[in-house]
């Protein structure tokens, strides 16, 4: 499910980990008679030695190129902000040797997919197409794959398996190779989607997500993805990142409030209330935190209540909720109560995009029509979000530090 206003964003992941132990030659033990010849050199302990597992792994990988030992760590993926805060994408490396694709990271879906070199549609031709025949680590799967989104866009193709690396974190996993894409994907800046939701909403049953596989392989220090989405208005749209396996405490103020996931699938949590114009609006709902949706989408009743506190706002049948573009100069906020804490969305970000018709109206960053609310990028670019995939999954949230 992908719902946006004037925008269509989506993403997807499929994954399978292949971690093989290294067989060691057994040593002689008690009861073994060993004849020693030559000069014996006693070993002594260096009291100043500092253990560095990552360095030793790197040394082994270089010494024995036929093996690949992964140490626990983290990986940061820098983001490009597609104007203006429309979509955020980063570079992902696929295969051996690596082929780079630009993927839109999406906590609202669970598949990874991008165009195959076999795709001949116009949408595919406008993007980087992955050539599986050039990758020595590619494995055929044979199953068909298809996905559709709320705006009517679709993609389909076949499944395969290859090494997928994000910020240096690598696993062998299932990927969707699109051999057909609908026209909507042709105009987007990214080549495909990288889903970060749970495996229960994978397009093909039984496929594991990238995070499932990275956690199982032990390649992450922590089972988390931390998200900093930049804002053109607040910092010029620079410095954004997805941080796999760690949390960057320099990006936010105060402490993270962890909100339990009420239903794994989407990153679904309880939204306990909304405050606007200095008053509690008496609205609450279940909702999802979705990096693949540009705006905040709430129920019709909640959207009406929020915009009732904004002078000059209107509900246009063709463009949805509109607000005066002068709202960009406001220093006020609306807030959503999550886990007992209020998290702000500046009114300045509700003036999302000028209609350009001379009316002085902007498309609002908050729209109605959704019973399961969606806290999209308009929310996330103001609040650091840590998607924690433990046995009891939760989302850690704190105000961004600019």
UniProtKB/TrEMBL annotation:
One GO MF term attached to the UniProt entry: aspartic-type endopeptidase activity
The organism's place on the tree of life at top rank: Eukaryota
Domain Peptidase A1 residue range list: 88-398
GO biological process, one term: proteolysis
One Pfam family linked to the record: Asp
Catalytic reaction(s) noted: Hydrolysis of proteins with broad specificity similar to that of pepsin A, preferring hydrophobic residues at P1 and P1'. Clots milk and activates trypsinogen. Does not cleave 4-Gln-|-His-5, but does cleave 10-His-|-Leu-11 and 12-Val-|-Glu-13 in B chain of insulin
Enzyme Commission number(s): 3.4.23.21
Disulfide bonds: 119-124, 325-362
Signal peptide annotation: 1-19
Keyword Chloroplast part of the UniProt annotation: no
CDD domains cross-referenced by the UniProt entry: pepsin_like (cd05471)
Active site: 106, 290
Record keywords: Aspartyl protease, Disulfide bond, Hydrolase, Protease, Signal, Zymogen
Record keyword Signal present: yes
InterPro entries associated with the record: Aspartic_peptidase_A1, Aspartic_peptidase_AS, Pepsin-like_dom, PEPTIDASE_A1, Peptidase_aspartic_dom_sf
Family recorded in the similarity comment: Belongs to the peptidase A1 family.
PANTHER family: ASPARTYL PROTEINASE, BETA-SITE APP-CLEAVING ENZYME, ISOFORM A-RELATED
Name of the protein described by the UniProt record: rhizopuspepsin
Organism for this UniProt entry: Entomortierella parvispora
């Amino acid at each position: 499910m992908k719902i946006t206003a004037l925008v269509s964003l989506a993403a997807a992941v499929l994954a399978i980990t292949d971690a093989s132990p290294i067989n060691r030659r057994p040593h002689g033990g008690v009861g073994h008679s060993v004849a020693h010849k030559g000069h014996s050199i006693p070993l002594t302990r260096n009291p100043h030695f500092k253990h560095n597992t990552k360095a030793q792994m790197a040394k082994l990988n270089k010494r024995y190129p036929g093996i690949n030992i992964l140490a626990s760590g983290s990986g940061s993926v820098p983001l490009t902000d597609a104007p203006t805060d429309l979509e955020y994408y980063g570079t992902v490396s696929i295969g051996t040797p690596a082929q780079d694709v630009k993927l839109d990271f999406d906590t609202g879906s669970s598949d990874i997919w991008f165009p195959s070199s076999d795709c001949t549609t116009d949408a595919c031709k406008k993007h980087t197409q992955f050539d599986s025949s050039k990758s020595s680590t590619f494995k055929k799967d044979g199953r068909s794959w298809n996905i559709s989104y709320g705006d009517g866009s679709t993609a389909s193709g076949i499944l395969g398996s290859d090494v997928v690396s994000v910020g240096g974190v690598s696993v062998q996993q299932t990927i969707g190779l699109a051999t057909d894409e609908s026209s909507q994907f042709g105009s987007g800046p990214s080549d495909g989607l990288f889903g970060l939701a749970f495996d229960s909403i994978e397009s093909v049953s039984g496929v594991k997500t990238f995070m499932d596989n990275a956690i199982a392989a032990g390649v992450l220090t922590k089972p988390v993805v931390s998200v900093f989405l930049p804002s053109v208005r607040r910092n010029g749209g620079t410095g954004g990142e997805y941080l796999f396996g760690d949390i960057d405490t320099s990006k936010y103020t105060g402490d993270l409030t962890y909100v339990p996931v009420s239903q794994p699938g989407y990153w679904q949590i309880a939204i306990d209330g909304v405050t606007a114009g200095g008053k509690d609006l008496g609205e609450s709902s279940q909702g999802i935190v979705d990096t693949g949706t540009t705006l905040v989408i709430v129920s019709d009743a909640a959207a009406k209540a929020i915009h009732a506190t904004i002078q000059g706002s209107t509900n246009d049948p063709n463009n949805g909720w509109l607000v005066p573009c002068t709202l960009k100069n406001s220093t006020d906020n609306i807030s959503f109560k999550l886990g007992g804490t209020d998290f702000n969305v500046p009114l300045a970000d509700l003036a999302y995009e000028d209609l350009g018709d001379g009316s002085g109206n902007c498309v609002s960053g908050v729209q109605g029509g959704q019973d399961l609310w969606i806290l999209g990028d308009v929310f996330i670019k103001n609040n650091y979000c840590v998607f924690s995939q433990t046995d009891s999954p939760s989302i850690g949230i704190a105000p961004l530090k600019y």
